[in-house]
# Entry
Amino acid sequence: MMIRFAAVSAFALLTLAACERNDDPVAEAPAPATPAKEEAAAAVDANALTANGLGPARIGMSRADLVAVWGDDSSPNSVGGPEPEVCDEFHPAKAPAGVNVMIQNGQLTRITLIRGATTKTDRGFGLGDAGMAIKQAYGGAVFAQPHKYQALPAEDLFVWSRGGSTAYVTDPAARGVRYEVGSEGKVTMIHAGDPSIQLVEGCS
# Structure
């Protein structure tokens, strides 16, 4: 009888031990993140200028919507476009320093970084950066055109993210960024938006 009791007790102890192991499993180490997951998890800088806009200001939005997020013209008495009802350029009161907008037929078509701007593009470039560095960063995606008023190294560097080509772009759905490089080989202005980024004298 004692042998049988001992056998049953041993079996009970083994069963209890097995249950305890199942109830308290050893935690598995998390699988290492793949480069693709790390890239997807990286936060997008909401303050970077892209072909589609800057922060809450999105290319294609109405002037009323733009004013709602950035305010109206900070200098309403200054000269903008020759026909403001058709095309106008101004600095919104709540926009970052050195940021101008272009409104054509009531819609935001272009955002421009001018002197004093510290905003960068989504590739990390801003005013004062070397045109050569931009070419190297974008590679074959950049299309260079001669500057209208200055000789090399001045030039215009276009990077179309949608609907662009090497020819003059007219598709209103196209989106791109134009780096305007001056005579010292440094970026002097940056334009982002629809085909209006090709305009070299404001609204014309």
About this structure: Residues 1-42 have pLDDT under 50 and may be disordered. The longest strand covers residues 155-162. The helical segments are 2-23, 35-41, 63-70, 131-138.
